Amino acid sequence: MKDDRHFFIRDPWVYDPAAPKPIRPDADLGFRTRALHAGFHPLKNQQDFRSFVPPIVQSVTYPYETFEEIPCPVYGRTRTPTNTVLENRLASLEGGEACLTAASGSQALFNLIFTLARPGDNVVTSLNIFGEGYKQAATIFPERCRVECRFVDNPENPASWDAQIDSKTKLVWVETPSNPCLFVTDIAAVAEVAHAKKTPLMVDNTTATAALQRPMDLGADIVLLSISKFLSGSATLLGGALVGPEDLMEDIRWNTTEFIGAIMQPQDAWLTLQYLETLPLRMERHSTNAQAVAEFLDRHPNVIRVNYSGLPKHPQHDLACRQMKSHGGLMSFVVKNGVQGAATVMNGFELIVHAVTFGTSRTICMHPPTITHEHMTPAERAAAGIDDGLIRMSVGMENPKDIIADLEQALDRL
Fold this sequence. Notes:
Layout: H1 31-37, H2 81-94, E1 98-102, H3 105-116, E2 122-125, H4 131-145, E3 148-151, H5 158-164, E4 169-175, H6 187-196, E5 201-204, E6 222-226, H7 227-231, E7 240-244, H8 246-260, H9 266-276, H10 279-299, E8 303-307, H11 317-323, E9 330-335, H12 338-348, E10 353-354, E11 364-366, H13 378-384, E12 390-394, H14 400-411
Parallel strand pairs: 2-3, 2-4, 4-5, 5-6, 10-11
Antiparallel strand pairs: 1-7, 6-7, 8-9, 9-12, 11-12
Helix pairs in contact: 1-2, 2-9, 3-4, 3-8, 5-6, 10-14, 12-14
């Protein structure tokens, strides 16, 4: 594609079910290999960087030699060399055509909807989404942009999604497994419903990452990522990304991001490239530790319910086993005595840390009803399974016996 694409405005992207699926040149490489090599090779990229690792290109602007030839990148709001390497790697890992990074996952979501939808249009989703996403859907877009966001009644039933989609629907938005209750949506079934009405499906793959789940292999058109979570695994940076058709990614880049200006900084992009090298190994450890912790909690008398798709009693366990390689490191559980019970347990932790994020190497927890999902009405929280006694826990990479011991002594305080 031409490097002068910032001089023209693209037509709004429309899903075309007849369009061929993108084929990336490194598609035949294994996932662990692509996590290390996609987007940059020390020898093949010597004309750009003479370095074993991609360098941080911190420049805001990029000089050009003549009046007539303006290069890309030309300014840091649209593209930087370091971010481009990260975007190519994420696109490869997710199996998409192109990628666009953003200042955060929430910013990436905003940029997508802001680009696709106009006043009078609508977006179809469910209550099984992250708290900041719910705020955008319930308040920001309807009240400030006159874009309606519709919540399906029964997200387990494809017919419930179908009933909400009409000619004004610009996007169907699924988060699976969901934060914080780990609801698993049938990606292939919802994709079939959305595509029948020529509507693109976006899947938030933050919880699983491409190491455990590939939504585009199941029919998704766009993937949303919070890089701040498992992708980086360190709680040291903010970043987000979208993976999808190149025309759409470039439309967002040149007609939204360039003017809003909320970009992921090159240094954070560089750090993410380093962290991605260990993503497959980290997700394996997160998953095995979380499975052991979930099985312990499921047996504890002071725990009412455990939300983790690795447990056979999880309502979507079979579906999760079909569309995910493993079940990941995020889980939640409900303790007795509501908010006070949750406070007692969380205040009793000695190893587990209170923190408002997930996907870190250390085990952390938080209370969704009062922190991330406080904007929901009590009825909406009840419908989404966010009980007053719900504790969200991101299981880290410690020795699982130590995590379980801390949980046990804290739960015994109830």
